[in-house]
């Protein structure tokens, strides 16, 4: 078992949004995997909804087989729509959200453009209670400062018609990530958190980096990541 | 500059700005649309022009006009979009206008699909448009290389007064990797653009055109272009070798991200005692014909294996390089299916096993014939 305190997920609907390439899909997949193993969530169904309508590749649906094996329900477009980058909302999506018995994780496309899909489901989200998390990678060009991140937050809230509940600090440089990358990322998340009064829900990092870090380095809950959405040669 | 994490499409866009290209015309198409999205944000910040045309035809002709002014201009598209631009690309080659065109390839033919492919090799390298012309074609395999080659493309376009095309399969556009940009793009000195149309105040008017009704003038122009392509063959061939040694039994030839899959396969085979090397062309025109031949004819190389995300296109250039001096085999997946390193490993193991088997049968035959004697 991990030495880290895991993020505290309390709501039935958990919406994962953020800038392009902030790592939303990887965070969603890992959050689902972590919750299914968490004793607190025992006997509660976990499902993951791929609501990415803007990216053509590297989407959480690619991890479906692996997640279903763990007992996580993965809801994706089927047939040839699986491969499309069209704005398709499956008819059963609203039902899944409204009838959710357990915990639902919604993986959403990047920026305000990707988050727009949420506004069509807004009433369903409000009927159930939801948390919406901002995945933040300080090493991405449009979220490298407090001002630019704040701008993105405003844009996403306006296009989704939903409000943020917390920040998931997910700073990384893929294989070039070091403990410093994580720490520097936390600094940006803290600055944003302070500026707009939004709590830090958790910190994400690959387990191999976390292994190198001592517990007192991070004062927030931690979601350890094991990458699922790999490039063909990885 | 510090490393940033970027999607290939964004990195290509930023690299163009770094190379001083501030005139971008585009029409969106998956999987390259993020280039346009990124530049729609960035161009106003750097005083550049972002213009979405009404179609790829319009975009390609905007490039012609803008390139004629001597400014650095570019577009990006994906396979079917690039097909639509071919007429204007041929015109720009004929009129000797420097342009940079990026093709983030998806599966074809026709409307095809949106997943990665390398099936526009012929279109890029053999002339997708009409007439006696060539494009200088570059193929990166990492996002950092895409950045470096994108900047270089603008230099080479100006150096040769010719359109340059950079091609990458969809993954080059969509995947994310850490990249570093130079503070300033350092390039060799270029000839003055005395051909640029900048307004004829106080001088004779200039014309940028590819129409030559007099056949002698047209022939002269074609031979002039030909001479430039010969110069490119002399000076611009680029390639990279991976784990090539005199222990190799098999030599792979692959480009773009396909080469990275091959590298993973090579590392795996090495751990099992099978020695394989990789030759990766970076320029697809000019193609490293001689360099491939020099490696392939080496005694230790039993077979050459070409691997592509197509049904065998670069294969024809490798055949042209090797001229029947070594046996060539091919492995390919297409339509958006990316071969896995395991597939490549299995293909190579199959080749090695076959060879061992044929050696055995040959040995048996000799022992039999000895008995007979």
Write up what this structure looks like.
The complex is a heterodimer of chains A (234) and B (373). By secondary structure, chain A is an alpha/beta fold. Chain A has a single domain, classed as Rossmann fold (3-Layer(aba) Sandwich), CATH 3.40.50. Chain A has helices at residues 24-37, 64-69, 92-98, 111-115, 122-127, 146-160, 179-196, 207-210; strands spanning 13-18, 46-51, 73-75, 103-108, 130-136, 166-169, 200-206, 222-225. In chain A, β5 (130-136), α6 (146-160) and β6 (166-169) form a beta-alpha-beta unit. In chain A, α6 crosses α7 (179-196). The radius of gyration of chain A is 16 Å and the shape is globular. With 373 residues, chain B is an alpha/beta fold. In chain B, the strands form 3 sheets. A 7-stranded mixed β-sheet of chain B has the order 3-2-4-5-7-6-12, sandwiched between helices. A 5-stranded mixed β-sheet of chain B has the order 9-11-10-13-14, with helices on both faces. Chain B is globular, with a radius of gyration of 23 Å. The interface between A and B is medium-sized, with 25 and 33 residues.
Describe the structure concisely for a colleague:
Chain A is an alpha/beta fold and 234 residues long. In chain A, 32% of the residues lie in helices and 18% in strands. Chain B folds into two domains: 4-185 and 209-235, Thiamin diphosphate (ThDP)-binding fold, Pyr/PP domains (Rossmann fold, 3-Layer(aba) Sandwich); 240-372, Rossmann fold, CATH 3.40.50.920.
């Amino acid at each position: 078992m991990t030495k880290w305190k895991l993020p505290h997920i309390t709501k039935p609907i958990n919406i994962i949004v953020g800038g392009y390439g902030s790592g939303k899909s990887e965070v969603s997949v890992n959050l689902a995997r972590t919750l299914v193993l968490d004793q607190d969530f025992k006997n509660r169904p976990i499902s993951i909804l791929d609501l990415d309508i803007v990216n053509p590749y590297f989407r959480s649906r690619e991890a479906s087989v692996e997640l279903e094996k763990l007992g996580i329900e993965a809801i994706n477009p089927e047939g040839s729509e699986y491969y499309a980058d069209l704005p398709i909302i499956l008819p059963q999506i609203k039902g899944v959200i409204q009838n959710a018995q357990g915990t639902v994780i919604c993986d959403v496309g990047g920026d305000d453009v990707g988050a727009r899909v949420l506004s069509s489901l807004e009433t369903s989200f409000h009927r159930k209670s939801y948390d919406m998390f901002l995945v933040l990678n300080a090493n991405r060009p449009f979220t490298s400062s407090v001002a630019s991140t704040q701008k993105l937050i405003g844009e996403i809230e306006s296009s989704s018609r939903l409000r943020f509940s917390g920040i998931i600090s997910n700073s990384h440089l893929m294989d070039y990530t070091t403990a410093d990358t994580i720490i520097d990322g936390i600094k940006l998340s803290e600055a944003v958190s302070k500026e707009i009064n939004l709590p830090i829900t958790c910190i994400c990092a690959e387990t191999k980096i976390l292994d190198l870090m001592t517990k007192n380095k991070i004062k927030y809950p931690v979601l350890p990541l094991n990458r699922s959405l790999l490039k063909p040669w990885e | 500059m510090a490393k940033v994490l970027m999607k290939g499409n964004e990195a290509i866009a930023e690299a163009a700005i770094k190379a001083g290209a501030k005139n971008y015309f585009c029409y969106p198409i998956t999987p390259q649309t993020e280039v346009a999205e990124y530049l729609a944000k960035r161009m106003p910040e750097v005083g550049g022009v972002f213009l979405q045309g009404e179609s790829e035809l319009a975009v390609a002709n905007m490039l012609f006009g803008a390139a004629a002014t001597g400014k650095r201009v570019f577009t990006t598209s994906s396979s079917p979009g690039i097909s639509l631009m071919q007429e204007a690309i041929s015109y720009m080659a004929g009129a000797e206008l420097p342009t940079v065109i990026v093709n983030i390839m998806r599966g074809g033919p026709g409307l095809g699909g949106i997943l990665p492919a390398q099936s526009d090799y012929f279109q890029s390298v053999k002339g997708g448009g009409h007439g006696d012309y060539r494009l200088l074609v570059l193929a990166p395999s990492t996002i950092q290389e895409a950045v470096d080659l994108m900047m270089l493309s603008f230099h080479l376009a100006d150096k040769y007064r010719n359109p340059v095309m950079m091609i990458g399969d969809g993954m080059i556009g969509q995947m994310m990797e850490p990249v570093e940009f130079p503070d300033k793009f350092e390039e060799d000195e270029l000839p003055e653009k005395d051909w640029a149309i900048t307004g004829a105040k106080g001088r004779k008017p200039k014309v940028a055109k590819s129409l030559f009704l007099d056949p002698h003038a047209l022939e002269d122009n074609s031979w002039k272009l030909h001479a430039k392509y010969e110069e490119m063959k002399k000076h611009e061939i680029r390639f990279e070798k991976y784990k090539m040694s005199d222990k190799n039994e098999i030599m792979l030839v692959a480009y773009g991200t396909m080469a990275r899959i091959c590298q993973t396969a090579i590392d795996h085979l090495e751990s099992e005692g099978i020695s394989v090397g990789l030759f990766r062309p970076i320029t697809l025109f000019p193609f490293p014909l001689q360099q491939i031949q020099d490696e392939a004819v080496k005694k230790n190389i039993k077979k050459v294996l070409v691997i592509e995300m197509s049904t065998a296109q670069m294969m024809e250039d490798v055949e042209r390089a090797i001229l029947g001096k070594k046996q060539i085999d091919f492995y390919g997946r297409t339509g958006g299916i990316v071969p896995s390193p395991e597939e490549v490993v299995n293909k190579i193991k199959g080749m090695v096993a076959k060879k061992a088997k044929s050696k055995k049968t040959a040995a048996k035959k000799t022992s039999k014939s000895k008995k007979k004697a």
